[in-house]
Amino acid sequence: MEVVRRVLEAWQQDDFEAFLSGTDPTIEWHTVLERMVEAPRASIEATREYGGSGTSIETELDDFEVEAQELRDVGDDRVVLLGKLRWRGLKSGIESEAPLGAVITLRDGKKIQSIDYLSHQEALKAVGLKE
């Protein structure tokens, strides 16, 4: 769980290189935004592209934030993150938030897979839990 905390903190501090340091080069990351509009990201290069400058997160959203309200170690080197996403439309100025659940799989202290969900219940169900 410490790895997940560390990479989330790096994301919040806009330290993308520190964020990537906790990510295996073969990461399979199924982000909520990407799952809604196109195929999931499945490489470190694509993850760099997703979080780097010029992406839709930077060009369309302002103050994009992931808040982890709870982290659960669910065994098998997996952590469930329950939290929320917050952002403001860069052009509209409209502030929004949405629930976020993620199932993160680790190997050798690095994230190898992350699957995001738009509800806590979906993420918990994915690992066989109800609450």
Global mean pLDDT: 83
| Reported CATH architecture | Roll
| Uncertain ranges | none
Give helix and strand order, one letter per element, not per position: HHEHHHEEEEH
Question: What does the largest sheet look like?
Answer: 5 strands, mixed
Strand content: 35-45%
Compute the number of helices: 6
Helix content class: 25-40%
Strand order of the largest sheet: 1-5-4-3-2
Which structural category do the helix and sheet elements fall into?
A: alpha+beta
Q: What name does the CATH topology carry? A: Nuclear Transport Factor 2, Chain: A
Give the C-level CATH assignment. Answer: Alpha Beta
Q: Please state the CA-atom Rg, rounded to the nearest Å.
A: 14 Å
Number of DSSP strand runs: 5
Q: What gap, in angstroms, lies between the N and C termini?
A: 18 Å
**Count of folded domains:** 1
Give the overall shape. Answer: globular
